[in-house]
Structures are given as structure tokens and as C-alpha cells.
Design a protein that fits this description.
- The chain is mainly α.
- The protein has one domain.
- The chain is built from three helices and two strands.
- It has a two-stranded antiparallel ribbon with strand order 1-2.
- The longest helix is centred in the first third of the chain and has 14 residues.
Length: 66
């Protein structure tokens, strides 16, 4: 999933307005390995914005809900 600059800006605003961590999860969330972006099975790292857009689809409609 490609994330354009407009969606990146919306994600950053959503994170700030909702008090979430840099990965879009509640502040204080702990991750095995330190990040939800790294898949230990494949050794690959996912883009942060793609991760958030996939895990939190509500961010796409967030501004409409405000």
C-alpha cells in the first residue's frame, strides 16, 4: 500500500490529536523487539505509514469525524 504525502500528514495530525505513539497505538504500548514494524519471521521492516494505514483504517476518515 502506497501512502502519499497527504495521508502522511493526516496520520501525523491524527497521532498528535489522539495522543498515540509513533506507530498509531496507545501511548505506552510495548512491542516485542522494540518495534511493530520488524517481522522477525521474514527479516523485513515495514514502512511506518503503511503500517499505521493498514492497522488503523479509521485514520483515513478521521478529519471527517472531527
Amino acid at each position: 500500500m502506497a501512502v502519499d504525502s497527504a495521508l502522511k500528514a493526516k496520520i501525523e495530525a491524527w497521532i498528535k490529536a489522539t495522543g498515540r505513539n509513533e506507530f498509531g497505538d496507545p501511548d505506552g504500548t510495548m512491542y516485542a523487539g522494540g518495534t511493530p514494524l520488524f517481522d522477525e519471521r521474514t527479516g523485513k521492516t515495514k514502512d511506518r505509514f503503511e503500517h499505521i494505514a493498514e492497522k488503523h483504517p479509521e485514520v483515513k476518515d478521521w478529519e471527517a469525524d472531527r
